[in-house]
Amino acid sequence: MKQKETQQETMPKEKRVVFFEGKSWYHRTKELQDDLTTKYGKKGGFETPEEAEKSYWEYEKRYQKKQRDLQIAKMQKIDVMLGDYLEYWFENIFSPRIETTTRMVGAYTLYNLILPSMEADIKLKYILVEYLDALLERVTKICPSAGNKGRELLSIAMKDAAGDKFISYNPMPETKPYPRAKPKVRVLGKEN
Length: 192
What we know:
The structure is a single chain. By secondary structure, the protein is mainly alpha-helical. The protein has helices at 2-10, 49-76, 82-94, 100-117, 129-140, 146-163, and strands at 18-21, 24-32, 38-46. The protein has two domains: 2-76, no CATH class; 82-174, Tyrosine recombinase, N-terminal domain (DNA polymerase, domain 1). A three-stranded antiparallel sheet has the order 1-2-3. The N and C termini lie far apart (72 Å). Mean pLDDT is 85; it is low at 1-14. Keywords: DNA-binding. GO terms for molecular function: DNA binding.
């Protein structure tokens, strides 16, 4: 009993997702219902905080997946605009699977380069290569790496859109490539 209380005291307080009650470890649960309400509960009987935390993250992963699946199903029933989809995709699909630095570059690319360069929003299902080429041409004028980063981010977004059945095919492979500028490397020898 003393060992379990000691374990509880040594766990970092800011990251605690489990708690000790009675004679075992517990964690809170949440389950997304079909009517989009969330049902809360608790699950216990774990001997160690690690077991309880592992179970917590499994529940959390299932909750997030069901939430995403329901959001996508709802969005597929309506005509989604490209700008709205890109914002939704970046915040809810792309960001959870990337590192912080990649997110910062992606956020800058989307919110400062791509979205402001969209002269007219278009329904996602009507996206054509010509529209994307014109958009990337405007993005390229902002800075030297904008075309490359813009195309890279749009390629990932359109691949996910095709995978989630928002569009019937991914037009990005047919768009004009914007190669990354190669830095000029100067090799210094003993003479220099």
